[in-house]
Give the backbone structure.
Amino acid sequence: MFEFEVEASDGAARAGTWHLPHGDVRTPCFMPIGTQGTVRTLSPRDLEACGATMVLANTYHLHVRPGEDVVAKLGGLHRFMGWPKPLLTDSGGFQVFSLEGRRRVSEDGVEFQSHVDGARRQLTPERAVEIQWALGADVAMAFDHVIPGPSGHEAAQDAAGRTLRWLVRCRDRFAALAREAPERQTLVPIVQGGTFDDLRRESLRGVLDAGEWRALAVGGLSVGESKPRMDEVLAGLEPVLPPRVPRYLMGVGFPGDFVAALARGMDLADCVAPTRMGRNGAAFTDDGQVNIRNARHREDDAPLDATCDCETCTTFSRGYLRHLFAAEELLGLRLLSLHNVRYLIRLAARARDAILAGTFAGWSRAWLARYGSREQA
Ligand SMILES: [Zn+2]
């Protein structure tokens, strides 16, 4: 359980399989985000039709509402949200640190005011692990100190150091919980260090010294730094990452960033972009983003993406989808979310095929050139 097999690599890009309690995950893998225990507007059957294998849920949100005890009483998170396949929960760190002005950070943890009922609560490394254990996802994340946007060296060093000290506390609490059910869940550490190569490597060394991990995550990227800088950080980290564990790049899921990250040896990624963009009427295609609200689609009988096999693209015209957005019909939000999630999952599958065939470098260069050139047009 929790073993990762690398089936093929092509340059730094890898194709593998991660064995998890609720099923196998083929990588590269894109994970849709179910913030409140639901991927907004999509049912588990929709996700299944999109080819999703692993879904992410947010610990902070499920903790403040309905509460992990309620989820546990109703059979655990898989049963609660009707998703029988692998699940990953974040640690809640990203959300509590985003509560600007409503949180206080100390060495012990973060005290915050719930956005739902205003109650004061505390999240510590131990609590974050306990909540995730109660939720019961296949993969739990260590509680990390998240810093805003591109921060200075000192702030990044301070946060990376605290993240490591918190990791040891997460590890110890997790070990105590997992003693009775070692095959239930695995805890994944997060490499921090902002945009500084020295801090990234220092953070990685600390993480590897702290335990034997079944996966590694890279956090704190795609938070406002330039794309070339993000690429450099990943390029600097890749040669020193252990080869036998899957690498999860957190919060990076716009198509262009996703493909670029795979070229740097990342295996999994998540992002709210497909559903958030979809609800705004923006759809991903190989020719860049399409804004379905645009007047030029008014009498367009073509599908959103002629190469896509999703329900949206095989059933409806761009003209109809534009009409749904103009009339503010809920179906429009669902259909574009569905397409975008399918697009990213298919993109991961296409990347996997290219890696297995040994053609990833050429495929990704061609894909990025086509996607990028039209995106700016
Ligand atoms: Zn589609």
Summary: The two ends are 47 Å apart (CA to CA).
